[in-house]
UniProtKB/TrEMBL annotation, chain A:
<feature type="region of interest" description="Disordered">
    <location>
        <begin position="1"/>
        <end position="27"/>
    </location>
</feature>
<dbReference type="GO" id="GO:0000987">
    <property type="term" value="F:cis-regulatory region sequence-specific DNA binding"/>
</dbReference>
<dbReference type="InterPro" id="IPR003347">
    <property type="entry name" value="JmjC_dom"/>
</dbReference>
<dbReference type="Pfam" id="PF13621">
    <property type="entry name" value="Cupin_8"/>
</dbReference>
<dbReference type="GO" id="GO:0005634">
    <property type="term" value="C:nucleus"/>
</dbReference>
<feature type="compositionally biased region" description="Basic residues">
    <location>
        <begin position="8"/>
        <end position="27"/>
    </location>
</feature>
<dbReference type="GO" id="GO:0016491">
    <property type="term" value="F:oxidoreductase activity"/>
</dbReference>
<dbReference type="Pfam" id="PF12937">
    <property type="entry name" value="F-box-like"/>
</dbReference>
<dbReference type="GO" id="GO:0046872">
    <property type="term" value="F:metal ion binding"/>
</dbReference>
<dbReference type="InterPro" id="IPR050910">
    <property type="entry name" value="JMJD6_ArgDemeth/LysHydrox"/>
</dbReference>
<dbReference type="InterPro" id="IPR041667">
    <property type="entry name" value="Cupin_8"/>
</dbReference>
<keyword id="KW-0560">Oxidoreductase</keyword>
<keyword id="KW-0408">Iron</keyword>
<protein>
    <recommendedName>
        <fullName>F-box protein</fullName>
    </recommendedName>
</protein>
<keyword id="KW-0479">Metal-binding</keyword>
<dbReference type="InterPro" id="IPR001810">
    <property type="entry name" value="F-box_dom"/>
</dbReference>
<feature type="domain" description="F-box">
    <location>
        <begin position="100"/>
        <end position="146"/>
    </location>
</feature>
């Protein structure tokens, strides 16, 4: 669902104004336990392992299970709390401050912001000046940006982004990835949290709640009456049984069929083979995942090996033909990849079918903003400063005590999740996964979509198409042409329903101030 | 002069500025929104020397769109050429289309960017303080420029020059230094210590 990036990406300045993207990400306050006994032994384990290539399986930090080989490359960064626990500054000075000189007055996130502006050589120079700047300068996300900007999708990932850059930049043959120095006595909450989020696995208790409704083999009418019209999510089983993709889509075949075709991966395009090399090796807080809206155009077989489940076949945007916004994506990603909280664009509904692997979903209805998410008043931007892992660590527990709890589930291969329009959703792959997702407009949310497209700031909100302002006109014309009278019919039906019910409908209870919602207006 | 806001620096000096200037700071904006009897906002963490520099920046940016973060969305009402007089004609244009094609807007933005770059060509000490002030007061464009200013100070130097610049101690062992230089020798523009 592209709206994740809709709010988070910066608008591009003209080419002449060459500024690096300024990714501001404020970390939430980290709730580390203050008890020394709980804290110390586990962190010491990290230090002891430094000589080994990989961490032992089952290693733990702060009660979180670490992914295998989570910390072989990284420094024994510790949270700031440890420094306080170990007694006065003389006994164990923070290598951070000692090595930063005048820069030590800057908080970690600001310092990293400065580093995002540096080209590779300068970043390398900086990281060779002191131990502290070595830790900051080898922060892998910085090198990820450098790789993607310079090499786009044409790189072979080798262990870390920094190694990848160095190997790709080298004029000689790529060398085996070099071991970075391990710097100890470095205390930084920001960097520790970053390392932690990149290294931990999902906690079992985060996966326990599964309160979504499940149905198998229901009729289209039942789906519309029970779920689509009332705008409720549902997990449908048995819809993918006839899909050739279920049997045929595995890595080997996909790489063969897609060979040199490049697919959209974050800001760049890559072949499947290179993508898998990356996704197997990467240990990141926000892994790149393959998310391509043109997959069926690029490789015709892919489009022919799946089918829209019967419940979703009324798709009124299809009348726009080539002018319709992006509406279908193939999604491939490793464990840990996914989308943080967002609402799908243009007020459309969506379905997401898992072909391989499994996904964890957390969904909130339109009128409830998830904890930790900050939409702007006009809905044009959504700030989700935290990564998915960080959200689970710091915010998930909060909403478990709310009266209106989120809808959650784990969706496995062969199952489809229906995401009603306006619903907030977060999704994370629990293992290597391949999925297909589509957005659509049916009779049930036709009026909402028309309303949304008519909004005065439509040009900022509407996404997925190059011609934002005219989308409303085009769509309305297309509907009136192909389905004359439908708009009136639907409006009448809704008015009838509202007259019957005493409670306000979803639509009426939602206001503009809560992004993702919209004011329902009678046309 | 429109409505003004009074700000008090950490060392007790009072600055009176127009709302449009002060509200570049999201913090000041939200503090002013609350019921403040005297309209006097104390800023204990910013001293007068820095605050006056910050306000100089804000004054310059007061009537411009946010250059560094929202460039593509310059509304045509802010276009220097149109000057608000052609509001009727331009209201149906999408703002991004306007700024992409309007030469006057583009030039105005470039001028502002140049001014900004000069503004941060100052000594590092001042940049540090500007960075902290911009962070504390939540002024997006100043943050952006101060960060870029700091980065500019780093660019093009060798390790020894950077150590001098920031008063850093080289706390590597000789073996470690050798190791690091070996890693970075793969860069197409390697450097000497």
């Amino acid at each position: 669902m592209p709206s994740t990036f809709h709010g988070l990406t910066r608008r591009k300045p003209p080419a002449a104004v060459r500024k690096k993207k300024n990714k501001k990400r404020k970390r939430s306050v980290i709730a580390f336990p203050k008890m020394a006994p709980e804290l110390r032994p586990e962190v010491e384990e990290v230090e002891d392992e430094e000589d080994e290539e990989d961490m032992e399986e089952g290693a733990e930090v702060l009660g979180f299970k670490l992914k295998p080989s989570a910390s072989s490359r990284f420094h024994a960064i510790q949270p700031l709390g440890n420094l306080l626990l170990l007694g006065g500054p003389s006994s164990s000075a923070n290598a951070r401050d000692v090595g930063l000189g005048a820069l030590r007055i800057l908080p970690d996130d600001l310092l990293l912001d400065v580093l995002t502006f540096l080209p590779a050589r300068d970043l390398a120079v900086l990281s060779s000046t002191s131990r502290s700047l070595y830790v900051f300068g080898t922060h892998d996300p910085l090198w990820r940006t450098l790789v993607l900007e310079r090499f786009h999708g044409d790189f072979l990932f080798c262990g870390s982004w920094r190694s990848t850059y160095l190997a790709s930049a080298s004029r000689t043959l790529p060398l085996p990835p070099s071991e970075t120095l391990v710097i100890r006595n470095f205390y930084s909450d920001y960097l520790f949290q970053s390392w932690l989020c990149a290294s931990i696995e999902m906690k079992p208790e985060w996966l326990k709640i599964d309160n979504i409704e499940r149905r198998r083999g229901i009729s289209v009418e039942e789906f519309i009456d029970t779920f689509e019209d009332p705008n409720k999510p549902v997990l449908l089983q048995g819809c993918l049984d006839t899909w050739p993709a279920m049997k045929r889509w595995n890595r080997e075949r996909l790489m063969r069929v897609c060979s040199d075709v490049k697919f959209a991966v974050g800001p760049v395009e890559m072949t499947m083979e290179r993508y898998f090399k990356y996704s197997d090796a990467a240990k990141e807080e926000r892994p790149l995942y393959l998310f391509d809206p043109k997959f069926a155009d690029k490789v015709l077989e892919l489009g022919s090996e799946y089918d829209v489940p019967i419940y979703f076949r009324e798709d009124l945007f299809s009348m726009l033909g080539k002018e319709r916004p992006d509406y279908r994506w193939i999604i491939i990603g490793p464990a840990g990849s996914g989308s943080s909280f967002h609402v799908d664009p243009n007020s459309t509904s969506a379905w997401n079918a898992v072909i391989k692997g499994s996904k964890k979903w957390v969904m909130f209805p339109p009128e409830i903003v998830p904890p930790g998410v900050h939409p702007s008043a006009d809905g044009a931007e959504v700030a989700c400063p935290v990564s998915i892992m960080e959200w689970f660590m710091n915010f998930y527990a909060a909403c478990r005590t709310w009266k209106k709890r989120p809808v959650e589930c784990v969706c496995r291969a062969g199952e489809v999740v229906f995401i009603p329009n306006g619903w907030w959703h977060l999704v994370i792959n629990l293992e290597d996964s391949i999925a297909i997702t589509q957005n659509y407009v049916s009779r049930s949310n036709l009026l909402n979509v028309l309303d949304f497209l008519q909004k005065p700031n439509a040009r900022e909100l509407v996404s997925g198409t190059k011609d934002r302002v005219n989308l409303f006109d085009k769509f309305k014309t297309a509907i009136d042409t192909s389905y004359p009278g439908m708009i009136d019919e639907v409006t009448a039906k809704v008015q009838e329903k509202m007259a019957e019910k005493k409670r306000p409908s979803f639509w009426e209870s939602v206001t503009d101030a809560k992004a993702g919602g919209f004011k329902f207006s009678l046309i | 002069m429109g409505k003004t806001i009074k700000l008090i620096s950490g060392d007790g000096e009072m600055f009176e500025v127009e709302e449009a200037v002060a509200f570049q700071s999201n913090i000041i904006k939200s503090l002013a929104d609350e019921d403040n009897a005297d309209d006097c906002i104390p800023l204990p963490r910013v001293d007068s020397q820095i605050l006056s520099k910050v306000l100089e920046f804000c004054r310059k940016h007061a009537n411009s769109p946010s250059v560094h973060t929202k460039f593509a969305a310059i509304p045509s009402e802010l276009c220097p050429k149109h000057d608000g007089s052609a509001a009727g004609a331009s209201s149906s244009e999408s703002s991004s289309a306007h700024s992409e094609t309007c030469r006057a807007c583009y030039d105005a933005v470039m001028k502002l960017v140049q001014w900004d770059l000069e503004f941060v060509k100052v000594d590092l000490d001042l940049i540090h303080h500007l960075l902290k002030a911009a962070n504390y007061l939540d002024i997006e464009d100043l943050m952006f420029m101060a960060v870029e200013g700091a980065a500019n100070a780093i660019r093009g130097n060798n390790p020894e020059e950077i150590r001098k610049l920031f008063d850093l101690e080289n706390d590597f062992t000789p073996e470690e230094e050798k190791e690091i230089l070996k890693e970075y020798s793969w860069l197409d523009d390697p450097f000497e210590p």
